[in-house]
Amino acid sequence: MSSASDLLAAALRLGCGVRQLPADALPTVPCVFFANHSSHLDFATLWAALPPAQRRRVRPVAGRDYWEKGPLRRWLAGRVFRAVLIERQKVTVATNPLTPMVDALDAGASLIVFPEGTRSPDGQIQPFKSGLHHLARARPTTPLVPIFLDNLNRILPKGDFLPVPLVATLAVGAPLAFDPAEAKTDFLVRAQLALVALQRP
Prior knowledge:
This protein is an alpha/beta fold.
């Protein structure tokens, strides 16, 4: 499956015009990549842009309600992306989204998360929900790596199904460290500003 995944990653990079991210800009230990969210292409493009070693151990976090609709989505989520599917509709103690994410980190995987919680309607970064803070508090030594995805909302806007031939870019920021003494609101604002700082003028 690794060769098929490599081919898919190359096709995604070609289709969106993105380059593979440099390995020396990324942690060598399991980490949490957090990015802005404006298109269904977001996690697939970020996954494809990672160097092979990081890509093979990364697991995107995605909504179970979307990725379990239909055999193709289930196959992509389970066999290709190895996504951590979380409950978004009826969250209970038994379906707490934090549990499978922490389990994946403990097993040596990195994660791709989108702290806005849903796709931005206009491409602007929306306020972060509390999930990133809960994850960071659960595993406070895990590096948190901001990645800004630019132009994917124009390549495949929300509500559209056919991509437009434009070029996307990805920008990587310095990892954030978690401070247990920092208030949740302050942490979320700091993480959001780390993404904002990566936007092109």
